[in-house]
């Protein structure tokens, strides 16, 4: 079954790419290589510069792929494996990839301007401002969600924490080799990969057993310091090592899933409303986008696509493999995650101490989240164990399971931790931009807020404080809500671009998914606020109210946006 | 007889005035040019690799800095729209 699903997934993606994707390219965007892309028209040799399709794909994919496409599907397994898989495939093909592709092409037609700029132009100035605020809230929630996840993983498996610490040391050494010693790039790469393997092995030798609270303090100082030091010291060499982890993890996972030849242990469908968020029955619709974010669709991708990718696109026909294709690759990563947990997750839970009476196919929906939490094998930890077991069951079994487990853990932890300090850099920028109106009216406050350290500490402190509350499921769903609200705004902008600027007769290909997404995300967020948040507030009033306020403000901004969208008649296909 | 003489002196005075005005304006023009040079130099002096070159030299060399000026121009155009570029550059995953 594992093999069948992987092959079906691969076929679906290939067929839909060459049919639906090509149709969007041909009939909606009307991509033409006769029109010079900004990389050539506005060539400056620095920002606007053509890149080869393959190189740009790699850069774009590495920028959008992270820990989220792994964590979300691992949680969605409580619905059974079919609903999560369908949302990944459906969302990917009809919403997520369309969203990424339209954001990229809108930006290309707008001289490489961001989707935020396009939204301001097509819908209204308020939409552009709302974008900043929602992104800022999203960044705080990302810090919270990813700190909580990595903290939980480090506590459960100290070997991953140790391997990660060794990897940081390896990245620092690689930075020195590349920029101080100026070593040959290929030689430095080989040394980097050897150091990465050594880090994984050293992690298995001696772990770092610290408490959850201690890890939160470590993360706080780490993200504030890492966000302030020059990128070539840590961020760049570490990201370079991460890309090797990503591709090796994907390749090993793909090979293992193909050769696993294993039936699924997890039921195909448990119930429409299994117990998940805040211990409440969580309906598949509209809550699913709060759980599966990046594997299916993500608002952050619109920023990546319209930030650097659009300025480096050599020609318009490259947009489809990069904008649409990279999202498919990320969806395929989520497919591997679902397959590994569906095939090996139940055994992993049983081996961890969950009895057949506690959790079985009959009570899966009601008991999965509780049972997985009781043995600390929820979300990413369940994926790590299932992935290691899946690899161990194939001819790749010669690699010790302990090593594969740390590799998979490093994969998740590395991307989640990378996200922590990159988001903090972005949040610092957002704080500075949002404080701009105070420049003349409250100079002192403006200066304080835009101070490098203050702007860095604000999002880090709020995020870590929320993470320290320990309720990672609630924080994860809040992050999902914020992310998907941005995706809805970006896709609405893409739809407005197709309808208003391209005047495409097939613009409904974008307009309809945009409405489906907006309605789903808005209902999902409202459901979360009404049903789940009161329980979270009762349990921990401080963090509960903070998340509540963030969500409510975002929801209000979301309605302001849709009001402007309707008023601008940007949805009208002309 | 008297009228042509008066006309003559009037023209002399007028020419005198014009000459003075032009001279003053020319001086101001030089000053404006020099201020423009200094302004360009303040902004772009480092482009030609000299911390404080004579302004005429800097201006003479500026055309060779065309590419840098284009970059600067494009940066200025995108200065208020940096969030997406930052996300694209440092990634989010």
Give a description of the structure.
Chain A has a single domain (2-567), classed as Amino acid/polyamine transporter I. Chain A contains 23 helices and no strands. Chain A has helices at 2-28, 38-41, 53-64, 68-76, 81-109, 115-122, 125-156, 158-179, 185-205, 212-226, 235-259, 284-291, 300-312, 319-351, 364-374, 380-392, 401-434, 438-441, 443-450, 452-468, 472-501, 508-539, 541-567. In chain A, helix 8 packs across helix 17 (401-434) and helix 12 (284-291) crosses helix 22. The longest helix of chain A has 34 residues, at 401-434. Chain B is mostly helical and 93 residues long. Chain B has one domain. The mean pLDDT of chain B is 75. Chain A binds chain B through residues 42, 44-48, 62-68, 107, 112-117, 131-132, 135, 142, 231, 235, 239, 294, 300, 302-309, 311, 415, 418-419, 422-423, 425-426, 429-430, 433, and chain B through 67, 70-71, 74-75, 78, 81-93.
Q: In CATH, what is the class of chain A?
A: Mainly Alpha
The fold-level CATH name of chain A is Amino acid/polyamine transporter I
The dominant shape of chain B is elongated
Helix content of chain A: over 70%
Strand content of chain A: under 5%
- The percentage of residues in β strands of chain B lies in under 5%
Largest beta-sheet characterization of chain A: none
- Distance N terminus to C terminus of chain A? 47 Å
Question: Considering DSSP H and I runs of 4 or more, what fraction of the residues of chain B is helical?
Answer: over 70%
What's the helix and strand layout?
The complex is a heterodimer of chains A (574) and B (93).
Chain A: H1 2-28, H2 38-41, H3 53-64, H4 68-76, H5 81-109, H6 115-122, H7 125-156, H8 158-179, H9 185-205, H10 212-226, H11 235-259, H12 284-291, H13 300-312, H14 319-351, H15 364-374, H16 380-392, H17 401-434, H18 438-441, H19 443-450, H20 452-468, H21 472-501, H22 508-539, H23 541-567
Helix pairs in contact in A: 1-11, 1-14, 3-13, 3-14, 4-14, 5-13, 5-14, 5-21, 5-22, 6-7, 6-21, 7-8, 7-10, 7-17, 7-20, 7-21, 7-23, 8-9, 8-11, 8-17, 9-17, 10-17, 10-20, 11-14, 11-16, 11-17, 12-22, 14-16, 16-17, 17-20, 21-22, 21-23, 22-23
Chain B: H1 2-44, H2 55-61, H3 66-78, H4 83-90
């Amino acid at each position: 079954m594992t093999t069948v699903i992987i092959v079906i997934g691969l076929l679906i993606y290939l067929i839909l790419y060459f049919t639906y994707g090509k149709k969007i390219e041909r009939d909606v965007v009307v991509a033409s290589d006769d029109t010079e892309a900004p990389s050539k028209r506005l060539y400056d040799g620095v920002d606007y510069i053509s890149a080869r399709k393959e190189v740009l794909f790699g850069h774009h994919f590495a920028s959008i792929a992270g820990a989220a496409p792994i964590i979300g599907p691992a949680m969605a397994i409580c619905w059974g494996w079919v609903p999560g898989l369908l949302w990944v495939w459906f969302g990917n093909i009809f919403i997520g990839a369309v969203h990424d592709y339209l954001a990229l092409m809108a930006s290309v037609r707008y001289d490489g301007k961001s989707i935020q700029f396009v939204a301001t132009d097509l819908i209204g100035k308020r939409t552009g401002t709302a974008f900043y605020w929602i992104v800022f809230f999203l960044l705080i929630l990302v810090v919270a969600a990813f700190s909580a996840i990595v903290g939980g993983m480090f506590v459960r498996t100290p070997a991953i924490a140790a391997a990660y610490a060794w990897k940081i040391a390896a990245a620092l050494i690689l930075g020195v080799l590349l920029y101080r010693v100026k070593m040959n790039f290929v030689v430095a790469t080989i040394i980097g990969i050897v150091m990465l393997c050594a880090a994984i092995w050293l992690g298995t030798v001696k772990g770092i057993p610290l408490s959850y609270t201690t890890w939160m303090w470590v993360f706080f100082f780490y993200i504030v310091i890492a966000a302030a030091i020059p990128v070539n010291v840590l961020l760049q060499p570490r990201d370079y090592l991460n890309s090797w982890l990503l591709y090796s993890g994907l390749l090993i996972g793909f090979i293992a899933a193909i050769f696993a030849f294993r039936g699924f242990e997890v039921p195909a469908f448990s119930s429409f409303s299994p117990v998940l968020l805040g211990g409440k029955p969580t309906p598949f619709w509209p809550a699913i986008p709060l759980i599966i974010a990046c594997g299916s669709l993500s608002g952050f991708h619109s920023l990546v696509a319209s930030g650097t990718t659009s300025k480096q696109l050599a020609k318009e026909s490259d947009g489809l493999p990069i904008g649409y294709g990279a999202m498919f690759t990320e969806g395929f990563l989520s497919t591997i995650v679902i397959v590994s947990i569906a095939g090996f997750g139940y055994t992993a839970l049983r081996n961890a101490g969950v009895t057949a009476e506690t959790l079985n196919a009959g009570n899966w929906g009601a008991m999965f989240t509780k049972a997985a939490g009781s043995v600390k094998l929820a979300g990413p930890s369940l994926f790590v164990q299932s992935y290691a077991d899946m690899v161990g069951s194939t001819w790749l079994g010669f690699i010790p399971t302990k090593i594969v487990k740390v590799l998979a853990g490093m994969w998740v932890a590395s991307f989640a931790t990378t996200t922590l300090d990159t988001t903090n850099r972005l949040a610092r920028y957002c704080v500075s931009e949002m404080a701009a109106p105070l420049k003349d009216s409250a100079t002192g406050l403006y200066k304080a807020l835009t101070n490098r350290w203050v702007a860095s500490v604000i999002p880090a402190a709020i995020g870590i404080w929320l993470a320290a509350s320990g309720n990672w499921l609630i924080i994860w769903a809040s992050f999902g809500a914020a992310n998907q609200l941005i995706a809805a705004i970006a896709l609405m902008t893409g739809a407005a671009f197709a309808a208003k600027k391209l005047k495409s007769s097939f613009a409904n290909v974008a307009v309809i998914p945009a409405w489906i997404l907006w309605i789903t995300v808005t209902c999902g967020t409202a459901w979360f606020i009404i049903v789940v948040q009161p329980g979270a507030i009762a349990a921990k009033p401080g963090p509960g109210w903070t998340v509540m306020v963030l969500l409510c403000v975002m929801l209000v901004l979301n309605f302001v946006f849709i009001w402007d969208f309707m008023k601008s008649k940007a949805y009208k296909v002309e | 007889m008297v009228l042509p003489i008066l006309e003559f002196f009037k023209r002399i005075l007028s020419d005198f005035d014009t000459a003075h005005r032009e001279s003053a304006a020319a001086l101001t023009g030089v000053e404006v040019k020099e201020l423009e040079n200094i302004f360009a130099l303040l902004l772009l002096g480092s482009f030609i690799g000299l911390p404080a070159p004579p302004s005429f030299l800097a201006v003479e060399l500026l055309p060779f800095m065309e590419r840098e000026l284009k970059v600067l121009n494009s940066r200025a155009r995108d200065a208020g729209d940096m969030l997406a570029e930052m996300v694209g550059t440092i990634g989010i995953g």
